[in-house]
Structure formats: structure tokens, C-alpha cells
Amino acid sequence: MKSNIGKTIEIFSAKKGQSGLPRPIVSELNVINGFGIEFDKFAGKDDEKAVMLVGKIAYDIALENGVELELGSLGENILLDINPHNYEIGSIIKIGSVVLEITQKCTICNHLAVFSKDLPTLVKDCRGLYCKIIEGGSILKDMEIEILKEWKDNKKYAS
Length: 159
Prior knowledge:
Blueprint: E1 3-11, E2 29-32, E3 36-37, E4 51-55, H1 56-64, E5 78-80, E6 92-95, E7 98-105, H2 119-122, E8 129-135, E9 137-139, E10 144-149
Parallel strand pairs: 4-5
Antiparallel strand pairs: 1-5, 1-10, 2-3, 2-9, 4-8, 6-7, 6-10, 7-8
């Protein structure tokens, strides 16, 4: 069962040879299964980290703590109006025709300290999520996001 959960706010990609943050805003992401984002500096390197999602909440938390960031500063490819951390690793999302599987949480990056020494700690629980590409296609600003499969961990834990 699918359900609309939000929209893309903005999309970003840094080309090979570009360095630093923030990542540049682009008009379209061409997402290629088994490769990554066309022309992106990280394309073809790690299928499990082909696309990075960040929720606006990370920017809101930074701002509430006195850190004003330009969009793209957290290294994301796609900025969402929802918190993607509400979905577990293994969840499947769809943006336009693109289908992504959440594979892992982004680790704390000390390079974020260039904006504020406190930023890595402030956003540690909402920095972003990496995804692998299940089905490629184009992603644009203001596209609806659907959850196709929400992974639920049904394991029983020892007490």
C-alpha cells in the first residue's frame, strides 16, 4: 500500500572536481540504477550510498541553535519537507518514477564543523539517510514522496 508522505524541497548535486559545501542546487537529478546520480562526484562509488536524503528538520535544529545554513550545506542530494529518519533502514520510497531503498544513516561528519563546532552534534540524529537506487528516473523540486514499503523491525529483544 502506498501513501504520500511529503515533497522534495530542493535537489543538489556536486560534479566531479567540485569540492566543499554547500552542494549546488540543480534543476533535475537523473538517477541511474547501478550507478548513482548522473554527473555527481560520488556516482559509481558505492551503490548503498548512491543518494542522500536530508529532512528540513536538520536545518531547523541548526537554526534554533544559532547556526544558519545555506541549503545543501549538509551534503544532501534531496532535501525533504519530512524527516526521513521516521523511516527505518529497508524502507522503500518513491519520488516521481524513482524508487529508493534506505540503506544506512549518515555518520557524523566533522567537516560540518566548518559551519559551527556544535553542528555535527546538533544534527547527529537527523543528518541524513543514504539510499540505493531500485528504479532510476528523474527527480525534480516539489515532487511528491510516497512510502511504498515501510520496514518494521519485528525482532524480539532479550530483556
